[in-house]
C-alpha cells in the first residue's frame, strides 16, 4: 500500500486561529486522508478543524534559491512599520 | 429485581465493548500501514473506555446489592469466567484479515449506535451519561468502517471476494443483536413499547443494507443458521482463549499493580 499518495495535514486548534501544518500521511483519497489525520493528529484534543492537501499540489521554493529569494530583504529595515510616530490616543497597533 | 436487570444489561454492553476492544487491540503493530494501525487501535481504546465507565457503574450496583462484595471495574473484568460474560458473540470472533475486522466493527458499531441512540433517553442517569459520550465515538466508528466496507466490497476482485467471505462468516452472528434477553427490561429505556427491539432492528437493517448494497456485496440466504446466546453466557470456543490472555496477570498474581 506504499504507492498511496502523500498528504500534508493542517490543523486549527482553536476558533480564530490559523490552520497549522502538523505533518503528513499516506492515504488513498481525500476522505481517508481526513479520517487518518483525525486518527493520527487529533488524539489529544489538538484540533477543531482539519485540512488535508495532497503533497504534490504544494509547490515549494528550493533551498538553493534562498540567497536570491530572501537575503535582499535583510537591509531594508524601512519596510518595517517602525518609523511612524503614533499619536498617544492610538493604544493598540 | 430491577437492579439485577440493570446490572446484567450493563454487563452485556460493557462485555461487548471490552471483548471487542481486547480483540481489536491485537492489531496494534500489525496494521496494513501506520495510519490504519493507529486508527484501529483508537477504536479499540474507545471500546475499552466505554467498558470501563460501564463496569464502574456495574460495580456500584453490585456493591449495593451484595454489601461487602468489594466489586470494582477490575474484579468484574478480570475475575469472571467465560460463562459469566454476556458479550455479543461477534465481538469475540477472531480478527481474520483486514476486511473481516472492519466488517466486524461495522456490524457492532451500527448495533451500538442504535442501542446508545435509545439509551441517551434512559431514566437511569449513569447509563444515559455513558451513552451520550459513547454515541459520538460509535458514530465515527460507523463512518470509518462503512468507508472500508464500501472501498473493499466495491474494490478489486480479490478484495470483493474476501469481503463476501467475511460477510458470510459474520452475518449469522448478527441475529442476536436485537433479540432481547429477560434483563433488557423496559425500565432501562424510556417508553419502550412492544415493537421497541423490532424497530431498532429495522433501523439497523436499513443502514447496514444500504452500505452493503453500495459495496456490491450479497447478503447470505435467509435460511442460514443464526448463532445466538452470547447475551446469556453461551460463547464460541474463541472467548476462553481471549480471556486466558487478557486475565492472565490478575489470575496468576492476584491484586498485582504496576
Overall description:
The complex is a heterodimer of chains A (93) and B (258). Chain A is α+β, with helices and mostly antiparallel strands. Helix content of chain A is 18%, strand content 22%. Chain A has a three-stranded antiparallel sheet with strand order 2-1-3, with helices on one face. The N and C termini of chain A lie far apart (52 Å). In chain B, helix 2 (34-65) packs antiparallel against helix 6 (125-153) and helix 5 (98-119) packs across helix 7 (157-170). Chain B is globular and about 60 Å long. The mean pLDDT of chain B is 95.
Topology:
The complex is a heterodimer of chains A (93) and B (258).
Chain A: E1 6-12, E2 20-26, H1 30-41, E3 49-54, H2 66-70
Chain B: H1 2-24, H2 34-65, H3 73-78, H4 89-92, H5 98-119, H6 125-153, H7 157-170, H8 196-214, H9 237-252
Helix pairs in contact in B: 1-2, 2-6, 5-6, 5-7, 5-8
Distance between the termini of chain B: 38 Å
Alpha plus pi helix count of chain A? 2
Would you tell me the overall average pLDDT of chain B? Answer: 95
Q: Quickly name the level 1 CATH class of chain B.
A: Mainly Alpha
Low-confidence stretches of chain A: none
Query: What pattern of helices and strands is seen along the backbone of chain B?
Result: HHHHHHHHH
Number of strands of chain B: 0
Task: Quote the CATH topology of chain B.
Answer: Ferritin
**Low-confidence residue ranges of chain B:** none
CATH architecture of chain B: Up-down Bundle
Indicate the proportion of strand residues of chain A.
Answer: 15-25%
Supply the number of structural domains of chain B.
1
What is the molecular shape of chain A?
A: flat
Amino acid at each position: 500500500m506504499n504507492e498511496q499518495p502523500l498528504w500534508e495535514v493542517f490543523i486549527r486548534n482553536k476558533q480564530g486561529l490559523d490552520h497549522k501544518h502538523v505533518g503528513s500521511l499516506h492515504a488513498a483519497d481525500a476522505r481517508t486522508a481526513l479520517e487518518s489525520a483525525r486518527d493520527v493528529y487529533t488524539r489529544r484534543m489538538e484540533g477543531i478543524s482539519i485540512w488535508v492537501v495532497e503533497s504534490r499540489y504544494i509547490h515549494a521554493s528550493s533551498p538553493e534559491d534562498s540567497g536570491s529569494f530572501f537575503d535582499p530583504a535583510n537591509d531594508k529595515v524601512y519596510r518595517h512599520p517602525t518609523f511612524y510616530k503614533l499619536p498617544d490616543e492610538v493604544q493598540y497597533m | 429485581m430491577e437492579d439485577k436487570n440493570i446490572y446484567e444489561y450493563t454487563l452485556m454492553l460493557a462485555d461487548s465493548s471490552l471483548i471487542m476492544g481486547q480483540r481489536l487491540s491485537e492489531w496494534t503493530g500489525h496494521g496494513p500501514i501506520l495510519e490504519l494501525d493507529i486508527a484501529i487501535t483508537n477504536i479499540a481504546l474507545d471500546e475499552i473506555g466505554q467498558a470501563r465507565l460501564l463496569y464502574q457503574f456495574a460495580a456500584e450496583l453490585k456493591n449495593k446489592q451484595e454489601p461487602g462484595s468489594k466489586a470494582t471495574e477490575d474484579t468484574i473484568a478480570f475475575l469472571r469466567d467465560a460463562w459469566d460474560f454476556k458479550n455479543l458473540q461477534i465481538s469475540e470472533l477472531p480478527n481474520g484479515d483486514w476486511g473481516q475486522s472492519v466488517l466486524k466493527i461495522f456490524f457492532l458499531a451500527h448495533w451500538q449506535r442504535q442501542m446508545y441512540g435509545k439509551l441517551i433517553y434512559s431514566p437511569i442517569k449513569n447509563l444515559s451519561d455513558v451513552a451520550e459520550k459513547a454515541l459520538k465515538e460509535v458514530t465515527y466508528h460507523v463512518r470509518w468502517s462503512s468507508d472500508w466496507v464500501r472501498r473493499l466490497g466495491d474494490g478489486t476482485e480479490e478484495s470483493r471476494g474476501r469481503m463476501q467471505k467475511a460477510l458470510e462468516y459474520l452475518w449469522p452472528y448478527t441475529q442476536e443483536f436485537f433479540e432481547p434477553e429477560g434483563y433488557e427490561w423496559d425500565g432501562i429505556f424510556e417508553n419502550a413499547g412492544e415493537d421497541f427491539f423490532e424497530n431498532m432492528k429495522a433501523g439497523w437493517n436499513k443502514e447496514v443494507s444500504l452500505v452493503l448494497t453500495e459495496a456490491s456485496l450479497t447478503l447470505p440466504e435467509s435460511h442460514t443458521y443464526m448463532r445466538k446466546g452470547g447475551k446469556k453466557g453461551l460463547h464460541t470456543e474463541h472467548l476462553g482463549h481471549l480471556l486466558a490472555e487478557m486475565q492472565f496477570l490478575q489470575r496468576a498474581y492476584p491484586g498485582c499493580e504496576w
